[in-house]
TrEMBL record:
One family name in Pfam for this protein: LysR_substrate
The keyword Disulfide bond is assigned to this record: no
Keyword Amino-acid biosynthesis found: no
Protein name: Transcriptional regulator, LysR family
Coiled coil: none
Molecular functions per Gene Ontology: DNA binding; DNA-binding transcription factor activity
Signal peptide: none
Domain HTH lysR-type: 10-67
Record family assignment: Belongs to the LysR transcriptional regulatory family.
Length: 310
């Protein structure tokens, strides 16, 4: 039972508008985010002010800023809206389970995680259907927020791109680079040798640069890429014939064929390690999406294939 009769006037849309205003500080952005008209936002804000006996948002040069009352009640209203959303999930859970899962992932995901994820999917009743799409240079932010993509996997922690604030990320495992090149024995590659060498570049997500290039730029250095390929194995195969180098995530070594005479070398000192992260939109979470993330966590917790030591 509501303690205040005035609260009976509020509905779920009013709560959603309050939370959006609290986040955006802008009535127009709230209208666009919730696909409602600006007058609807104004009317809802008026009703909120009357029901909660407070101005709630004060117009300043930087936008609509929340009052102390708004700051106090925001966690309660956010929890209430999340509870309403979760209560509705169960109504269509069976249909939700039968929908395909859309994943936007790099080649590393398909090599390391997809076989065991697919095994878990086939053991479900009904069977899960997984659709893989390749990551492009621009991350599918809008598709994630709209629910058209269920999960994105990227290297972390976001060294050369920024995630939308409404997206959430969680590391799956840690990784590091190794430097592949022809040679008689494994060795530590110096930064000068690395920058002076020619490089082949695996572009498993259609981007002309990666975190290695950003790291070199921070040092005022660069590398010369003479060949691009769409996958790691093609780059490795080129090393058998070319006097080039290839930077490779160490975790992938057990999944690839290393040509004779190609050595697994230590990268230049200071080369950054990274994590492999999953990214999703909490605003449109669902049982099948939670199942997907939990399966990936379980797979990584059980351990990736052991890597060869250089």
């Amino acid at each position: 039972m509501l303690n205040n009769n005035l609260l009976r006037k509020l509905d779920v849309q009013d709560i959603a508008i309050f939370l959006s205003l609290f986040k955006t500080h802008n009535a127009r952005k709230t209208a666009d985010e919730l696909s409602v008209s600006p007058p609807t936002v104004s009317y809802s804000l008026k009703r909120l002010r009357e029901s909660l006996s407070d101005e709630l948002f004060v117009r300043e040069s930087s936008g609509l800023l929340p009052t102390a009352r708004s700051v106090y009640i925001e966690p309660y209203l956010r929890n209430a809206l999340e509870a309403i959303n979760r209560s509705a999930e169960g109504l269509g859970e069976q249909d939700d389970r039968e929908l395909p899962l859309e994943l936007c992932v790099p080649e590393a995901f398909e090599l390391l995680l997809l076989p065991r994820l697919m095994k878990a999917a086939l053991e479900c009743t009904p069977r899960r259907i997984l659709h893989m799409q390749k990551i492009r240079e621009k991350l599918p932010t809008e598709e994630l927020l709209a629910g058209k993509v269920d999960l994105l996997c990227v290297p972390g922690p976001g060294a050369y791109f920024q995630l939308h604030p409404q997206l959430q990320r969680q590391p799956l495992f840690e990784d590091r680079f190794v430097c592949m090149a022809r040679g008689n024995r494994p060795r530590q590659v110096s930064i000068d040798e690395y920058c002076e060498a020619l490089h082949v570049y695996p572009s498993p997500w259609q981007s002309p640069r990666n975190m290695v290039d950003l790291w070199l730029e921070q040092l005022g250095r660069s590398r010369t890429v003479v060949a691009w390929a769409s996958n790691y194995q093609a780059c490795l195969n080129m090393l058998e014939q070319l006097p080039c180098m290839l930077m490779l995530p160490e975790s992938l070594l057990p999944t690839l064929r290393i040509p004779p005479g190609v050595q697994i070398n230590q990268p230049p000192l200071g080369c950054p390690n990274f994590t492999f992260d999953m990214v999703w939109a909490p605003s449109n979470d669902s049982p099948r999406r939670r199942w997907l993330r939990q399966q990936l966590l379980n797979i990584c917790e059980s351990g990736l294939p052991p890597t060869a030591q250089p």
